[in-house]
Amino acid sequence: MLTIDNVWQLENFVKQKGATIGTKLGFVGLGQGGGKIVDAFAGIRNANGNAQYPVLCINTNMGDIQNLQNVDRANRLQLKGEEFEKGAGMDPAKGKKAMAANGEIVFETLNRVMHNTEAIVVVASLGGGTGTGSINMVIDVCADYLGKPVMAIVSLPNSHVDENVNAFEALKELVPKLEEYREDGEGNSYRVLENIVILDNKKIIEEHIEAVEQGSTEVANLSWDRYSNYKVASILHEWNVVTTLESDKTLDAEDFKNKLLFTGGVLTFAKKKINLQSGDLKSENDLINEIVATYRERNVLANGFDYKNDAIAFGINIVMPKNTEKLLNKDTLEKINRQLQEELEGVPVYYGRSTWDSKHALVYTICSLRGLPERAKNLKQESEELLAKQKEREARQSGFAIDGDLSSRQERTSTRVRTGRAAAPANPFATTEEKQVETKSAKKFNPFKE
């Protein structure tokens, strides 16, 4: 069985005969959070132990870079400069300045690591300094000068006044790139940003806590952030492989790339494992309803999408056990397609079916939307509420003022006449006996002697 870091299990179909990478993606991690996410992608290897994706990490803080587990050391780049060497300190302006100051080496390294990719995925955790401050700049450079489609994976912070404000400002600049077109030197038009995947850390933390309380084996001994990183890495990789499996009804790699990934939308993924032996599946309609419901109830990374109004394109791929293909024949697939089209009226649906050696069925969905998840939509309001609470708290604080005069004061005059500063022993904290010994041997203080 293949895993990420010997911790997170990938589905077995990724190593079956004929399975390969559909789209050659390269990942660029910015800052601490972005670096950790792409480190998970760097941990994905094939049956021969070879890395599946080229990965580059860029950060101001060397400590964060050194803590990565899987990224090749030649592909870890520290942004140099005396004012940046200890990190950007949750200051996006400093992160942007650090990237600009190191522009030549950054561009050279991007060219080297990403030269053989079909698309570049820029990854950052919004809220901090380096990733938040530099992500828009890096996306522009990749789109304008590397001549490759650019995607983005970003995470929204758990509620925190400083991080929320930083995330809002970065997202406000980032999202319009989905609808921005530019021309290259030969007059060819290109979209600046092909898609965004949004991870809601607040949602993921709550989900992780609930899973731990329920004793889920999936999250055993995993912190919430590693759980999140493995989630996004595994589902994108499994989607990228499932499009290459042999099938009589294929959603192939080219359709996945051109009809679903490169659509100028926010991408959302869902995944469900269905036990075909379950007594709950008593008819074909039960199976169809279970499959179709996947996108509504099994969203992996964020919640609160308006599928009915915002969907641009929808993809579904069902991986069935080899001995049960008849349960999902072409007629059943068409019924699934029609039900999805009824729910997502006017949205093109791309669907495929594959097989694998398992007792369970797997359902993967992907949807591209011209709309944000609920928390991203409300990030401005959430940030303003946090700022208001901060101001209210500051207004309630007692402060440091000491007002008024004492009503009376007893005057006390020393009878000792001071003729100069007392000569302190070498160790004024020594015991009385030690001071006496020290005083006998000490030379007189001479303030004029060099």
TrEMBL record:
Domain of life of the organism encoding this protein: Bacteria
One Pfam family here: TubZ-like_C
SUPFAM superfamilies xref list: Tubulin nucleotide-binding domain-like (SSF52490)
Disordered: region residues: 390-450
Keywords tagged on the record: GTP-binding, Nucleotide-binding
Any GO molecular function: GTP binding
GO cellular component: cell division site; cytoplasm
Protein name: Tubulin/FtsZ GTPase domain-containing protein
Compositional bias segments (type: Basic and acidic residues): 432-450
Domain Tubulin/FtsZ GTPase: 24-224
Gene Ontology biological process terms from the UniProt entry: cell division
